[in-house]
Specification:
The chain is an alpha/beta fold and 468 residues long. The protein has helices at residues 2-24, 48-59, 76-80, 100-119, 138-149, 161-169, 174-187, 198-208, 228-239, 296-310, 329-337, 355-360, 380-387, 416-427, 436-447, 452-459, 461-464, and strands at 36-43, 64-69, 84-88, 127-132, 152-157, 192-195, 213-214, 258-260, 264-267, 273-275, 281-286, 318-323, 344-347, 365-368, 392-395, 410-413. Strand 4 (127-132), helix 5 and strand 5 (152-157) form a beta-alpha-beta unit. The radius of gyration is 24 Å and the shape is globular. Residues 1-9 have low confidence and may be disordered.
């Protein structure tokens, strides 16, 4: 009964939006001078793929309206571009009155009105490029805006919103079923579709009758190995706020005037930087701190790693950096604070957009705990790590093989025990220039993977030229 009422409310809201757009329509001619409105019903600063879209469009001379929440600072390249205009959308907090289903429906309706109003105030675009998820209500709103502007709708499918919703509510919950029906129905109204894996491309066609083009996530040009000098300056900066980056003890350095961090030291007279003898290994992971990543797997593996050292295995100390923001961060920080390691330090910073690739390019190993809610998307963090030639240990899910090649550019694990064994194997004898860790890095060097700009030009640019 509640599901039926919610469905009626959503249908009524959608009908109202269409009617409002048609009544308000100014009979705008198709065109828009090649402008593109890139839409994320989320935080723009934490939406790297959509920022990359905006930068690629701007690089080809397109005017771009980048529309979304401005909670986190976008990358400096976006802010400096004269072709990209940020269009803020206010982030609505949940209504606290009535049943949860009622609260959710009201929030969706208010978001739809707010988003449509914002999208109809911008200059007329030729295309609206929308990230999904979240697609409720943004797919329907973007379609209505395209009716108004006589624009083309492109949906970039990163995943299915209903599968993410099912992590909290279960697959049979009324909201999940509504979201599934909605995504399939309104997804078919798009003019073009992009997706992140071949597995998703096939699923969209078989189950939704939606034809899509695969645009794999690729690293931007600034994801690369970090020079020793830049590493040192980054560590010095991070050491001001985070204990694990501070020097542990005085070593035999190149000079008594050396500036030290936990990993590097620089002679202040001649500027020479070397890696500190006996330095810890730097392990990095990044996360949105959501339900599709279980960080207790990593914490349990680190407990086993600590035990290996206590048992006499020759392993380095570890600094484990977990970057990101999200709803479960406080929960996991609580678990981390209960751990009492002698050989492992953990910190959970939020890095500036420009510092994140520098830290990836400085690390020794990446860990990915992303488990796709649909089994059809790939973790962008691994793409970025590979761009920095950083080997990765990643938890298994169905289409991961499209990115991580086990025993070639990294390792795949299924539980904390496997991860602990992999950490022991990879760091045994660290920092030797032999062994699997070194071989993985060599393989990544040799792979010469496409960068985002090249991939985008080959895949997306032809779509935009079809009707202009």
């Amino acid at each position: 009964m509640a599901a039926g009422g919610a469905l009626l409310l959503l249908a009524a809201a959608a009908g109202t939006l269409v009617l409002a757009a048609l009544l308000w329509r100014r009979r705008a001619a198709a065109g828009g001078a090649g402008r593109v409105c890139v839409v994320v019903l989320g935080d723009l600063g934490r939406s790297p793929r959509m920022q990359y879209h905006a930068l690629s469009l701007a690089r080809h001379g397109r005017g771009v309206e980048l529309l979304g929440y401005l909670q986190t600072r976008p990358h400096g390249d976006v802010l400096r571009s004269g072709k990209i205009r940020l269009v803020p959308v206010a982030d609505l907090r949940g209504l606290r009155v009535g049943p949860k289903l009622f609260q959710y429906v009201i929030k969706v309706i208010v978001q739809a009105i707010q988003l449509l109003y914002t999208m109809l105030k911008i200059d007329q675009p030729s295309y609206i490029l929308l990230q999904n998820p979240p697609g409720l209500p943004s797919i329907a709103v973007a379609w209505v805006a395209c009716l108004f502007w006589r624009s083309k709708l492109i949906i970039d499918w990163h995943n299915y919103g209903y599968t993410i919703m099912s992590l909290n509510h279960g697959r049979n919950h009324p909201l999940v079923q509504i979201a599934k029906w909605y995504e399939k129905l309104f997804g078919r109204l798009s003019d073009y579709n992009l997706c992140v894996t071949n597995a998703m491309k096939e699923d969209l066609w078989v189950n939704c009758n939606i034809k899509a083009v695969t645009l794999y996530d690729k690293p931007a040009s600034y994801f690369k190995e970090t020079s020793l000098e830049l590493q040192h300056h980054l560590y010095v900066k991070l050491a001001k706020d985070y204990e694990p980056f501070k020097p542990r003890y005085v070593t035999e350095s190149v000079s008594s005037n050396a500036e030290r961090t936990a990993f590097t030291e620089m002679d202040e007279k001649n500027g020479q930087v070397i890696k500190t003898r006996g330095r810890p290994a730097l392990l990095i992971s990044s996360t949105s701190w959501t339900e599709d990543e279980d960080f207790s797997v990593l914490l349990k593996a680190l407990e086993d790693y600590e035990r290996y050292i206590d048992e006499g295995v020759e392993l380095p100390s570890l600094v484990c950096v977990i970057t990101g923001k999200g709803p479960l961060k406080d929960y996991y920080n609580g678990l981390i604070n209960k751990l009492h390691f002698k050989h492992i330090q953990i910190c959970t910073p939020w890095l500036e957009a420009e510092d994140y690739p520098l830290l990836l390019g400085s690390a020794d190993l990446g860990v990915c705990l992303h488990k796709s809610s649909s089994g059809l998307d790939l973790p962008m963090k691994v793409v970025d790590m590979f761009g920095c030639c950083l080997p990765v240990c990643a938890i298994y899910f169905e289409c991961l093989h499209e990115l991580v090649k086990h025993d070639e550019n990294g390792l795949i694990f299924r539980d904390s025990n496997e991860l602990a064994e992999q950490l022991k194997m990879l760091f045994l004898g660290f920092p030797t220039l032999e062994g699997k860790l070194h071989n993985f890095r060599k393989n990544l060097h040799a792979s010469r993977q496409l960068r985002w700009d090249e991939s985008w030009d080959q895949t997306v640019l032809p779509l935009l030229g079809q009707n202009e």
